[in-house]
Amino acid sequence: MRKKTGPQFLANNSQLLIPLIAILLLVIFNLIRDPGFFSVSIAANNKGDPVLQGNLISILNGASELAILSMGMTLVTAASGGQDISVGALAAIAGSVFVKVLKGGVVSGPIVIAAFLACCAVSMLFGAFNGSLVSFFRIQPMIATLILFTCGRSIAYWINGGATPTIESPIINAVGSFIPGIPVPTPILIVILMGILFALIFRFTTLGLYIQTVGINQGAARLNGINAVGIKLLSFIILGACCAVAGTIGVSRLGLINHETLLINIEMDAILAVAIGGNSLGGGKFKMLGSVLGAYAIQALTITLYAMKVPSTDVKAYKAVVIVILVVMGSPVVKDAMSRFWTKLRSKRPAAAGKEVA
Description:
This protein is mostly helical. It has helices at residues 6-13, 17-33, 55-62, 64-80, 87-102, 109-135, 141-144, 146-159, 170-176, 186-204, 207-216, 218-223, 228-254, 266-276, 288-307, 312-329, 332-357; strands spanning 41-44, 50-53. It has a two-stranded antiparallel ribbon.
């Protein structure tokens, strides 16, 4: 079988190109600006346990919720050809349910598990609500999820009666920071576990293939016996579960629930992570790894700007400029231009070789 090179190789493997280039440029820029920017050190926390510290750990740790949400957002985008803009509000609802259950008794291992399962159930139920509007009633995803985007944080407010209760527990602290004896932040480990879980699902089931098929051509998928409505609904339910995990991490970091600020505006970063990851926002073929790399690229950019003493009020403007450049670089127009340039370059090489032989 002939090996694919040139334009064919670029077409089949270019989805990861943009996030990898973005991360590489940020790494080079920071190493030039500060050679020790990505250095990692081991220090003792306030409990005397050894933990990893440094900008690299801050990037991986700080992007954990975004990476998890980008995984679920990738599936929704691929299946429905649209985006869910309610993930931040849904994470706030999940976090409120998590805290509500914990405040009902003594915080112990079984109670924490029960609280997590409860917030997963509620979050997946709201995800099913969004998915029903999109799959059954064929409402455009961004419009359908605008409902929960608008009222979600109010629902989170009502769950705890408008209060912002705190949680003091070694278990919750371990979920949001470090497990005693393990120097790697727990949120990073949770992202790894989520990635492994999705990898196993795609490896041993046809879910990934069905999602791509529905996203590419829903009519053809239906003719081939694929339940397009069910696949779209399932993708929103899975995203709901991702929101529950992200909300649990967010609450555990702070030790309290603040419905107004928990993961605020993260839905926009999740959509950008999917786009930077090389996935088409119109649905179809996807690479979840690209979205995760896109999430880390966004967080690396944020940490870089703060390290350069950029005021917090200006960070979003700088991020917007860089993200526009990255998205344009990954657009079909630019990809086609690069493919044509590569074709012309290859066509000139045989001619030059022929002249040398003559």
